[in-house]
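Lab notebook, design round three. We kept the backbone fixed and only want residue identities now. Task for the bench partner: fill in a sequence for the structure below.
Input structure tokens:
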């Protein structure tokens, strides 16, 4: 899975030529908030041209609007996937899915209505990830964007994603570009809750995100030891030499970590 999702405005020629070489795991070309109204048509043309040479997600405008309909018509056959902003109901998702059949979807939860509908949204066929849109959510709730203030929402997205059997949710951007410490703390907090991956507004944020969402060598070694011991015991619960108790849930969590790291479990 991808650790970083780097945004680039769809109407900016300079950024569209640079974003694919910035080192992000995934790129999101934006047709929504970063594009002014008078540049929407031009942005669609530029994004479609970029997609002909590079795989990328595209953030379209809000579902069930004329802007979104034009966005989807322009990019659905070219985009790796579509990010739908401000999703508030499964009908929002279905509206886009009907116009982009077979295209993976990221559903951004950015309002109180979206939070309450997260479980239903996650269950719509075609949804790959929920994503937290922290800036718009803070505005809608009239709340601060700190870790404690967003704990409820983040936990909701993790539970909804897991219950629907989709990939873990993606965390929001950290809008303070010069706040590396805050970026790391926010990413580590999200990761501790069950998120995987985080959106970014600038390439300089990528090293922190990759460090946080990449399992360490020590974690990988430990996970392999857990899986190997559990399999050697024939799937029976056991206690490791260091005293850790290992049963099926512990072994499955270790296997999941290995999957996130992109390495195989021991034979």
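Proposed sequence:
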């Amino acid at each position: 899975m991808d650790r970083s999702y780097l945004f680039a405005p769809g109407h900016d020629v300079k950024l569209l030529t640079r974003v694919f070489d910035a080192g992000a795991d995934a790129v999101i070309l934006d047709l929504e908030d970063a594009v002014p109204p008078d540049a929407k048509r031009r942005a669609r043309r530029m994004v479609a041209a970029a997609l002909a040479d590079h795989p990328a997600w595209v953030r379209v405008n809000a579902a069930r609007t004329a802007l979104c309909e034009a966005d989807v018509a322009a990019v659905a056959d070219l985009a790796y996937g579509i990010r739908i902003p401000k999703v508030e109901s499964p009908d929002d998702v279905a509206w886009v899915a009907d116009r982009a059949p077979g295209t993976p979807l990221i559903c951004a939860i950015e309002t109180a209505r979206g939070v309450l509908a997260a479980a239903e949204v996650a269950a719509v066929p075609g949804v790959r990830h929920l994503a937290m849109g922290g800036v718009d959510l803070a505005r809608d709730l009239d709340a601060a964007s700190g870790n404690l203030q967003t704990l409820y929402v983040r936990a909701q997205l993790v539970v909804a994603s897991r219950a629907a059997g989709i990939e873990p949710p993606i965390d929001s951007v950290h809008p303070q570009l010069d706040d590396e410490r805050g970026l790391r703390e926010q990413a580590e907090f999200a990761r501790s809750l069950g998120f995987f991956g985080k959106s970014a507004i600038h390439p300089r944020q990528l090293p922190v995100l990759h460090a946080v969402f990449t399992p360490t060598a020590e974690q990988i070694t430990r996970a392999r030891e857990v899986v190997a011991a559990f399999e050697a015991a024939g799937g029976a619960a056991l206690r490791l030499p260091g005293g850790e108790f290992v049963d099926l849930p512990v072994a499955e969590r270790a296997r999941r970590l290995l999957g996130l790291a992109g390495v195989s479990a021991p034979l």
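Keep this in mind before ordering anything: The chain has two domains: 4-213, 217-261.
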